[in-house]
Amino acid sequence: xxxxxxxxxxxxxxxxxxxxxxYDDLVLFVQELRGLGFDAIRFxxxxxxxxxxxxxKKCSVDLLDIWNIIEAFRDNGLNTLDRFSIIxxxxxxxxxxxxxxxxxxxxxxxxxxxxxxxARYLLSWLLIAYDK
Length: 132
Known about the structure:
Low-confidence stretches: 1-12
Number of helices: 5
Strand content: under 5%
Number of strands: 0
Mean pLDDT: 80
Structural class: mainly alpha
Largest sheet: none
Oligomer: single chain
């Protein structure tokens, strides 16, 4: 039984209007992930680990360290917020962009990441993972 990406990304997702991620971006991201054949991995824990590692590499999250994250949080004023504050999607997008901009400042010239695509992929994945 073949399953489609529509099982994972629904058209009634509440995408914010201020976000650079569109429904089509989310569908393409899930289709790309499903097209790599991770579903053929027998054990769920290995299958999940393989998918998460792919997402990590695709979003260049493996290059981020704690100092990039701390700097991005401070740049966007998250260190002064109450821990129960709600972060809007445009604010989350600004934080993610700040992560990658600061990362590129620390990387050698030959290893720079594509800020816009990495940020878009990470934001897409977060919206898929935390969609209510």
